[in-house]
């Protein structure tokens, strides 16, 4: 892209804990509406302290998210990372992951773990750049929801990746 009608925009964002008022905008104009019940379930875990939902906010809109599962004593699990198309490549995913790692370290878990579909090269490259190393492979059942709520489960081959975290500084 380098023509007279191509422009480069920078985006100002910040990472913060999710609020209940974010849940509806996080459906991204219908794209994730079928996952509303999952959002609600994770929100309840977030309120209980067994999970942490992080959002990237830009211009008062949640343009990215990362969920942290703290149910396990040893690992914090990072999942559901996504950044709004159009704002990818601006460092938002990286900042969300860094924030998720801080949440895990502060919760006293020494290891951050995540899984990534074997063909998701872009995400895997980002995880490797941040210090994640493959510790295994698994076949996971991944739920897909159509806009009408119809549910389909597909088997997906995933890499399991981990990173040892530094102890929190405070
Ligand atoms: C994976 C994802 C969350 C990354 O978010 P992001 O905000 O684009 O990530 P960043 O801007 O922090 O970029 C991180 C790295 O991605 C790579 N990257 C950025 N733009 C890219 C592009 N257009 N094509 C390929 N790689 C790119 C770069 O290696 C970059 O590293 P750098 O900071 O050294 O340049 C985002 O692409 C996304 O939402 N994808 C769809 C959902 C998904 O796959 N989630 C992960 C499930 S495991």
The percent range for strand residues is: 35-45%
Q: Find the structural class using helix and strand composition.
A: alpha+beta
Which geometry do the CA atoms define? globular
Total of helices: 3
Largest sheet: 7 strands, mixed
| Fourth CATH level, the homologous superfamily | Gcn5-related N-acetyltransferase (GNAT)
Mean pLDDT: 95
Low-confidence spans:
none
**Could you tell me the number of beta strands?**
7
The appropriate CATH architecture is 3-Layer(aba) Sandwich
Keywords: Acyltransferase, Transferase
Organism: Sandaracinus amylolyticus
InterPro entries: Acyl_CoA_acyltransferase, GNAT_dom, YpeA/RimI_acetyltransf
Pfam families: Acetyltransf_1
Task: Please describe the topology of this protein.
Blueprint: E1 14-17, H1 36-48, E2 51-58, E3 61-69, E4 75-83, H2 92-106, E5 111-117, H3 121-129, E6 133-145, E7 151-164
Parallel strand pairs: 4-5
Antiparallel strand pairs: 1-2, 2-3, 3-4, 5-7, 6-7
This protein binds coenzyme A.
Residues 81-83, 88-94, 116, 120, 122-123, 125-126, 129 line the site of coenzyme A.
Domain N-acetyltransferase: 13-166
InterPro entries: Acyl_CoA_acyltransferase, GNAT_dom, YpeA/RimI_acetyltransf
Protein name: Acetyltransferase
Question: What does this entry look like structurally?
Answer:
The structure is a single chain. This protein starts with 13 loop residues before the first strand and ends in a 6-residue tail after the last strand. The chain has helices spanning 36-48, 92-106, 121-129; strands spanning 14-17, 51-58, 61-69, 75-83, 111-117, 133-145, 151-164. With 170 residues, the chain is of the alpha+beta class. The protein has three helices and seven strands. It has one domain (14-164): 3-Layer(aba) Sandwich (Aminopeptidase). 24% of the residues are buried. Coenzyme A is lined by residues 81-83, 88-94, 116, 120, 122-123, 125-126, 129. The site of coenzyme A (COA) has 17 residues, from strand 4, helix 2 and helix 3.
């Amino acid at each position: 892209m380098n023509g007279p009608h191509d422009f480069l925009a920078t985006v100002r964002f910040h990472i913060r804990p999710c609020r209940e008022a974010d849940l509806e905008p996080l459906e991204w104009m219908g794209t994730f509406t079928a996952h509303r019940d999952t959002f609600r379930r994770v929100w309840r875990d977030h309120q209980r302290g067994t999970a942490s939902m992080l959002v990237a906010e830009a211009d008062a809109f949640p343009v990215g998210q990362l969920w942290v599962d703290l149910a396990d004593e040893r690992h914090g699990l990072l999942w559901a990372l996504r950044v709004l198309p159009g704002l990818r490549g601006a460092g938002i995913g990286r900042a969300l992951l860094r924030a998720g790692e801080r949440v895990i370290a502060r919760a006293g878990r020494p290891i951050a773990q995540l899984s990534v579909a074997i063909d998701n090269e872009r995400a895997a490259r980002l995880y490797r750049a941040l210090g994640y190393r493959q510790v295994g492979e698994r076949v996971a059942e991944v739920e897909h929801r159509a806009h009408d709520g119809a549910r389909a489960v597909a088997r997906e081959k995933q890499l399991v990746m981990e990173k040892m975290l530094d102890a929190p500084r405070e």
